[in-house]
Amino acid sequence: MASVRGVLFALQDMHYVSGRCVLTEITTGTTSKVFFIDEFDKKYILKLNPPLSIQSESQFLKRYQQIEVFPECITTDDTTYILMEHMKGSMLNGHYSKLKILDKINFMNQYEYCDSRVGYINDLKPDFKIFLKDELALERLVIDDYYDSEALFDALGTVALPEEAPKYVHGDFGYHNFIMQKEVLSVIDPTPMQNLILYELLFLYCSSPYDINEETLRAYYDYYLKFSWIEYKEFLIYARIIMALRLSTSTRHHPEDTAQYVALLNELF
To answer: For residues 174 and 160, is the Cβ–Cβ distance under 8 A?
Structure first.
């Protein structure tokens, strides 16, 4: 990974930032680093990541630069870093109303169509059901500790393939990537995918274990019908599978939520 010092010097040479800017590291990992840059009258986020991550995120932000909830990509070298707009606000509380958030995501109707394959940009599958089958297979050992994964495979095998055509979507569209400032929503950290609005919407719904019940589930079904038709019973099957995948993720990143997801899977479906 390139040094942040070298990237900062390059940004200064291109006059994006000055020598007076204040750099604060926000997060760090084995393959990524994120910094906040305070340029006094301007605020930026600087991300250092491996080339594939930099390319996919910068391409997503450039493609959807007209959608104001996403940060503007100020500049990138396409291999090492992205300098982007800093989105004001705080991470959305997991208890925030699932119904209220529906009023803030109508920008999804600006998502663009892609080819018929589904999945992560570097691992595309022939269709949505095969994508979910592979995702379940990856998480099966974890899910089996809490829920019957075989029943999920059986349900997926019988449910109809959704009519919706895939689109170029955010891919990690959940409360953990939602920033709110005075009821104005921003969405950060895309993991771009070719996928369905159905997946994006249910991923959001299941990203927090709160406010999940028959009323809100029906509301999300009604919202989805603006994009494509699906039988409610089939919608429930896909919701069950995506919630089980979220259960598996919670065991690694939010173990305090795991018991709630298990209870919801047993009560709702």
So the answer is: no
Do the Cβ atoms of 203 and 249 come closer than 8 Å?
no
How far is Cα 53 from Cα 68, in angstroms, rounded to an integer?
Answer: 22
Per-residue pLDDT in tens (0 to 9) along the chain, 269 residues: 678 999 999 999 999 999 899 999 998 665 689 999 998 889 999 999 999 999 999 999 999 999 999 999 999 999 999 999 999 999 999 999 999 999 999 999 999 999 999 999 999 999 999 999 999 999 999 999 999 999 999 999 999 999 999 999 999 999 999 999 999 999 999 999 999 999 999 999 999 999 999 999 999 999 999 999 999 999 999 999 999 999 999 999 999 999 999 999 999 99
Can you read off the two tokens belonging to residue 193? Answer: 């995918």
CATH entry 3.30.200.20 includes domain 4-86: yes
The fourth-level CATH superfamily of domain 91-268 is Aminoglycoside phosphotransferase (APH), C-terminal lobe (3.90.1200.10)
pTM for the whole structure: 0.95
